[in-house]
What we know:
- The complex is a heterodimer.
- Helices cover 0% and strands 52% of the residues of chain A.
- Chain A is an all-beta fold.
- The radius of gyration of chain A is 17 Å and the shape is globular.
Amino acid sequence: MILHNPATNRFTAKNEWQETHFSFSFGPYYDEENIRFGPLRVLNDDIVKPNKGFGIHPHRDAEIVSIVLKGQLKHEDNLGNVGTLQYGNVQRMTAGTGVLHSEVNPTEDEDTHFLQLWILPNQKQLTPSYEDITFDPDKLKNELLPVVSHNAGENVALIHQDVTLYLSKIDAEKEIRFQQKEGRKIYVFAIEGEVSLNDGVTLQRRDDARITDIHSLTIHAKKDAFILLIDLPGGEG
Amino acid sequence: MLYVRHTVGSRLFCETTEYEIKPVENSWEISFKVDQETANTLLKFRDELNIFYVEENNQNQKTWFYSSEGDVRFVEDEGKYIILADRKTVYPV
């Protein structure tokens, strides 16, 4: 089954320095029917104005992944990590027993666009940790490039859950295939462009698809497209 | 002021100036009065509660508590909600 969620269904929160579109319940948005998809608990699509951001705040018991699409995002935490991310970087933070961090747009004149995902960890009270990786944007071309996985490797950040996040840029009229193991789930988020899934559901920019009981997925780009695909364990939620 | 918020996105469940925080062995017992509806919500999210304490004369720091085991209870006849927090972090804001 493919459950299609159009971008227009997302809840939006906006203030003078930030605009966020929530794909799942978060902060001011709460919908009992839209809490999570497997261990995927949060996908926030954020825009932050120059010299603004989120001051020091705590997190716990979450695997937090940030993917910068445009601009820069500066991270600092109480573990001593400092990093400035831009397109081509992916950050993974294990909040575990507790971490304090800040995230700001350090630039003077450019908005920061980024996706932030929270994955429920496979174990509570992990030791907090941080990692950022760099991927080669050329390797996204018509391929699914893993950037975060429980099977970490070179340029693949380690996550404490049985999930793998892939990015791909698909040229118009090209297609890619993803073979899924039985009993698992697939989440697809169309970052840019337009794709069809198994010649059925069409995702426009920022739409998502929550896919269960489908083991062979063909993603056809109707226009040049940029997608996030997540391979998730099955089970409830 | 004491604030009780959800761990995901900081949704505010309640805030109060009437509370008590007392050390109990290696933990802190945090108690405050709430109505039944709020208590039901807090019990529902017992594993996902962050408690923040800000002193009136020191607004430049926050104290963050939580119970890693969701150790909470509601004493119905007193209308008192009690959280046994085993984690405490003080940080500047």
